[in-house]
Every structure is written in structure tokens, then in C-alpha cells.
Amino acid sequence: MRTRCLQILLVVFFAVTADRAVAGEWEAGGSHSLSFQDVDGNEISTAAGHVTIITVVTRAQEDNARAVADLVPDRYVGDEKYRYVTLVNFQGKLAGPFQGLTRAVIRNRLEAEAKELKPQYLARKIERDPRSDLHVIADFDGSASKRLGLSESAGTAVFVFDGTGKLLGRWDGVPPGDALPEALATAR
């Protein structure tokens, strides 16, 4: 009987400490060199020299991606040092045959967004096409979300990494107030 109780206590202890280790891993200051592939086939790395904002949303929460983007101060828009990435967590609910079509729809929406951004780029004398600055990761199988420490069923989450992969900020939901601009201000 004592042996059985001891076994149960050890299992509970390891389960609790494992959960704390995962949660602690995603606190500001931790270093994370992660790579993802966007819908255009570009590699997106958190440690490739860009300050990277990753907003994770489900299809039902797409408006949250726009709300987070609206929090990014204008001075960072078009700056090659900063990169805004939307990761759409499809929660494993999209069948394989529809994934290619979904990527095409996302690319078309990015083209439309680039057209909207073009006047802002021209006003700031930025010559390149805004489309090259728009990134969406289609997470069909949940693997990208898991690499960010999220479950397949997770909702909106926002991460800010400096150019070396150091986590500067992490929020569940849209960041409150000036939290996102303050995290960006600490980036190098």
C-alpha cells in the first residue's frame, strides 16, 4: 500500500513540475530559435535578425490578428528589421484536399492587403512591394502552435522575439494597452 501511494505521489510530482517547466519556458527573457514556413514557402525564423511579432489566431479569431497589427506603431511598418507574422491555427479541422486551396485564398488576401499598404509605403519612400513583408503561417496540423507551447485548441496568443530569438513579451489574447509597443521598444 505504501509503495502504491509513493508511486502516485511521484507521478503527481513529475506532472506538476513538467507543467511548470513548460509554462516557465515561455516567460519573457527565454531564448527560442524556432523556424516556420509561411504560405509562400519562405522560412520564418525567430532568431534570424528580425524583431518578430507572431500572432496566433484560429479562423474564428481573425479579427484579433488585425487588432494586434493595429497596436504596432506606424514607425515599425515597412521597417525591414521588424516582421509581423500571423499564424492561423486550423486546430486540425481542415482536410488535406482543402489545404492547397486555403493557402491560395490566404495568398490572395495578402495581395489585397499589400495593395492597401502601398500608399503608406510610398509616403514613407519605401520602394519595395509591401507583399514581401506580409507573412501567414497556415498551421493545419497544430505542429507550429505546439512549438510555441500552445495546445491545438488554444485561442489568440501573441509573442514578440528580438533578432536573436529572445522572448520579449507573450500574451494570451490581444495585448493590453501599450504592452506591445513597450515590448517592441526594448528590441534590439
How many helices does DSSP assign? 5
**Computed Rg:** 19 Å
Count of beta strands:
7
Q: Which overall shape is indicated by the principal axes computed on the Cα atoms?
A: globular
Structural class: alpha/beta
Tell me the distance between the termini.
57 Å
> Residue-averaged pLDDT, rounded?
85
Q: Tell me the helix content.
A: 25-40%
In spatial order, strands of the major sheet run 5-4-3-6-7
The biggest sheet amounts to: 5 strands, mixed
Low-confidence stretches are 1-24
Instruction: Name the helix and strand elements from N-terminus to C-terminus, one letter apiece.
Output: HEEEHEHEHEEH
SSE blueprint and pairings:
Elements: H1 2-25, E1 35-37, E2 43-45, E3 51-58, H2 62-71, E4 82-89, H3 96-123, E5 134-139, H4 143-147, E6 157-161, E7 167-172, H5 179-185
Describe the structure concisely.
With 188 residues, the chain is an alpha/beta fold. Helices cover 39% and strands 21% of the residues.
Describe this structure in words.
The chain has 5 helices and 7 strands. The protein is of the alpha/beta class and 188 residues long. The strands form 2 sheets. A 5-stranded mixed beta sheet has the order 5-4-3-6-7. The radius of gyration is 19 Å and the shape is globular. It starts with a helix and ends with a helix. Mean pLDDT is 85; it is low at 1-24.
Q: Key features?
A:
188 residues, alpha/beta, five-stranded mixed sheet, two-stranded antiparallel ribbon, 21% strand, globular, disordered N terminus
